[in-house]
Amino acid sequence: MTLSKELLEIIVCPKCKSELIYEEDKQRLICQKCSVYYPIREDIPILLIEEAIPIEKETKL
Length: 61
Description:
Layout: H1 5-10, E1 21-23, E2 28-31, E3 36-41, E4 44-45, E5 53-54, H2 55-60
Antiparallel strand pairs: 1-2, 2-3, 3-4, 3-5
Protein name: UPF0434 protein TAGGR_1668
GO cellular component, one term: cytosol
Organism: Thermodesulfovibrio aggregans
């Protein structure tokens, strides 16, 4: 299942309030300004600052 267009238009990064980029295939929302992503679990975006994962951490895995 994918996130609705309406939801994607209104959600922003909880830390800096920037627009988020939806990566449907990886089930995550990316904030380019903060260089983090927020996971999507069971079709629910986890938009908690403490749940943000640094993008560079992914490349080290």
